[in-house]
């Protein structure tokens, strides 16, 4: 399959720059694979669209405010992105426009210094950060939310920073470590979860820490040649038991987002689910035989991305093109802060 098959033109004004005031007021494109029907709804209609006994699988990853600003000793300011904390003092980060500078760095708006411990490839560095606090605690004081590059914000600070801390986070986020949000879950509200409980819709949680590779375009001509990024995941014992009950009862498993889908589809087809932690580099694209996921809620994705390839694997390439064309014609809002789609 050629990567160009996943390309499409999106009018720039359809890229959502801000979330709607009400999370569940987003539009919801409802696609039924059984008869290829498309309906246009709002996200708050979801309880009426699900089946009694469905098991919804959410990704409870919590996004770190991972964008940081550092000042060189010479006075210049550079932007960075926290990636991980390999040990107590060291942070793995991406730094932009550092050039040949290797001197000390100071966090902007914080009395906190760092030195460069290692230089990697592609703008990656390891910083020795002079603090006894864990990275999440430091980032909560000095960081900004790592919004994807298609959402435009002021370089230093932006009046919407505080709002982004709340809205670029699901209401059930509980496991810190992601540098991008599992955006299908951004549409859920406490009231919507109450309504789902009232209709006997079950839910469980897995964790997949979304990484930068999520937004990386596929740059090879043949999709099969793409080197998929790897992301850490966890399936808890309670989630494994809930999944096994649903499979045993013949109930539908509904992935809330491509991240939850990738966790589930990384597990063996015939064996029971077990509590486990690991990494997944699964790349789902047509043709793909789905093992566990029977339906999915997802946002609208970037052209030529691994995420739109996953959607095409669920509905078929021609139907993916038709769905997206209709969404564009009807002026749906795209990407992280945009509208959603329910595929069943």
What features would you describe in this structure?
By secondary structure, the protein is an alpha/beta fold. The protein has 8 helices and 17 strands. The strands form 3 sheets. The protein has a 9-stranded mixed sheet. The chain has a 6-stranded antiparallel barrel with strand order 5-6-7-10-9-8. Strands 4-11 form a two-stranded parallel ribbon. The protein is globular. Helices cover 21% and strands 26% of the residues. 38% of the residues are buried. The longest helix has 13 residues. It has 2 domains: 237 residues, QueA-like (3-Layer(aba) Sandwich), CATH 3.40.1780; 77 residues, Thrombin, subunit H. The mean pLDDT is 94.
Write a brief structural summary.
The chain is an alpha/beta fold.
CATH topology of the largest domain: QueA-like
Give the CATH superfamily of the largest domain.
QueA-like
Biggest sheet descriptor:
9 strands, mixed
Number of helices: 8
Mean of all residue-level pLDDT scores: 94
The CATH class assignment of the largest domain is Alpha Beta
* % residues in beta strands: 25-35%
Question: What's the SSE pattern?
Answer: EEHEEEEEEEEHHEHEEHEHEEHHE
Indicate how many domains the architecture comprises.
Answer: 2
Q: What integer value in Å does the Rg equal?
A: 21 Å
**Architecture per CATH nomenclature, i.e. the level-2 architecture of the largest domain:** 3-Layer(aba) Sandwich
Distance between the termini: 24 Å
Low-pLDDT sequence parts: none
Strand order, sheet with most strands: 2-1-17-16-14-3-12-13-15
| Helical amount | 10-25%
Please report the total strand number as a whole number. 17
Q: What is the general shape?
A: globular
The helix/strand class is: alpha/beta
């Amino acid at each position: 399959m050629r990567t160009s098959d996943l390309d499409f033109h999106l009018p720039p004004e359809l890229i959502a720059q801000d979330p709607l005031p009400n999370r569940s007021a987003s539009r919801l494109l409802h696609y039924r694979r059984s008869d290829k029907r498309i309906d246009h709804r709002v996200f708050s209609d979801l309880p009426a669209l699900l089946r009694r006994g469905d098991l919804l699988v959410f990704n409870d990853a919590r996004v770190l405010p991972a964008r940081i600003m550092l000042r060189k000793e010479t006075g210049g300011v550079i932007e960075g992105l926290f990636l991980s904390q390999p040990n107590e003092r060291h942070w793995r980060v991406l730094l932009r426009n550092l050039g040949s500078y290797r001197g000390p760095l100071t966090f902007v708006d914080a009395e906190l210094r760092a030195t460069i411990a290692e230089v990697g490839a592609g703008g990656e560095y390891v910083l020795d950060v002079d603090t006894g606090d864990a990275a999440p605690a430091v980032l909560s004081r000095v960081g900004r939310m790592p919004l994807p590059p298609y959402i435009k914000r002021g370089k230093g600070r932006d009046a919407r920073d505080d709002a982004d801390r709340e809205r670029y986070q699901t209401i059930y986020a509980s496991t810190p470590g992601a540098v991008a949000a599992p955006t299908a879950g951004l549409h859920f509200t406490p009231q919507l979860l109450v309504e789902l409980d009232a209709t006997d819709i079950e839910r469980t949680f897995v964790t997949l820490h979304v990484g930068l590779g999520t937004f990386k375009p596929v740059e090879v001509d043949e999709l099969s040649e793409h080197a998929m990024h790897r992301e850490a995941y966890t399936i808890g014992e309670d989630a494994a038991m809930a999944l096994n009950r649903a499979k045993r009862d013949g109930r539908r498993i509904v992935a809330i987002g491509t991240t939850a889908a990738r966790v589930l589809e990384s597990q063996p087809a015939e064996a029971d689910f077990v509590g486990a932690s690991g990494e997944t580099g699964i790349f789902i694209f047509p043709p793909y035989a789905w093992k566990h996921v029977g339906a999915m809620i997802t946002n609208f994705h970037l052209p030529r991305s691994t995420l739109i390839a996953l959607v095409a694997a669920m509905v078929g390439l021609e139907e993916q093109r038709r769905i997206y064309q209709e969404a564009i014609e009807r002026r749906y809002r795209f990407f992280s802060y945009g509208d959603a789609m329910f595929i069943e």
